Amino acid sequence: MKILVINAGSSSLKFTVFNFSWLGKQTVLASGQVECIGLLTASLIYTKTGKAKVKTEIPLNEERLLTKKYINHSEALKVVCDKLLNKDDGVITSINDILAIGHRVVHGGEKATRPVIIDEKIKELIVECTHLAPLHNPANLAGITACEETFPGVPNVAIFDTAFHQTMPPESYLYAIPYELYEKHGFRRYGFHGTSHHYVGKQTAKYLKVAFEELKLITCHLGNGCSMAAIDKGEVVETSMGMTPLEGLVMGTRCGDIDPAIPMALVNDCGMAPRDVDILLNKKSGLYGLAGIGTGDMRDVIQAAEKGNKQAEIAKNIFIRRIVKYIGAYYTMLGGSDAIVFTGGIGENSAPIRAGVVNMLEALGSCLDPAANQGCTGSAAVISTKDSKMKAIVMPTNEELMIATQSVELLLEEGKLKVVSV
Ligand code: ADP
Fold it and tell me: In which residue ranges of the chain is CATH 3.30.420.40 found?
């Protein structure tokens, strides 16, 4: 059974084709992305499992160049389909081989609490939530429309980034601002990276051979964007990102928690335009803004710190300290925790960052096993000592697999999967 997963961004269309065997095994057949949608130089990056990654420019005819009608999401998907059908390195023989499509959708507001089969109402909901994710939701919708055109009759499922966090109580999701702003405009904490927190939570339970519903977990998704979640018996009770993905931890280029008076001071005292403040907080802050080395990439920050760059050292330490601060709060809210889980590019690969965090958790009963930590890159492992009361665990995330799995589960539940052609 072949399942397509689509993650459509404003200028990219990422895809993964999975094969789900009836023995419960899932394998990736091909993956890749179309880059620079809407720009002059769009290209397709494609990897068939077991073969080398190939990058091809998507040629434009003269008329398109003159009229600046560059490739859109729908055309990008057609390019992807042609590749998937290609005799030499394709993975399907007909578009009918794709039995279901799972879509990452960033914002589903309060109404989206679980995966849903996409119909007109769900598309309206995605539009309704556009003011909360103005860059992402329209792109996600463009990906959905493109799939409906190219794969007529194939069920599309939406997996919302915000859905897993919708179990939070009002005490956690409301801000201390006038209540009517929540009622009128939906100003509240929604949380993001939900698919990743859910996936690593469940995988950790499997790894520990304990039911997800019996665990108290603190999950740390540390990538370019960073967020944490406190999960009690399989349900989120707290998360660090807020109404937008700007709140919470220090990130690659985003500021995370700051005094809310700062944006106003930037406008009123520094004469900045609101739009520029938005850019400053989203694109020029975080590790990038603090370290001052022209990049927000953690590898570069660590390297600069190791070479004696004081500012980079402080940036790295603030990053660690903020995580520890949230762990302390979440540990208390949960009434203890079975494990701290690290995932995302930094969480899975950076031993020094994990060490920095876990070395500050002694009071909570977690002690680092330095050899286990050093030896772990991108694979599941326990990195705390055997007698630690609270374990520290590395668990690779796989949002695409979670989207595919949740799509299949929902469609089987609803009797909407055509299984005859498998
Ligand atoms: P995204 O959030 O865009 O999905 P990733 O989860 O891939 O991003 O994470 C990107 C981050 O992971 C970057 O800051 C990168 O520096 C960091 N990273 C990847 N590998 C390492 C490593 N070996 N050591 C430290 N940081 C790493």
Answer: 2-160, 209-399
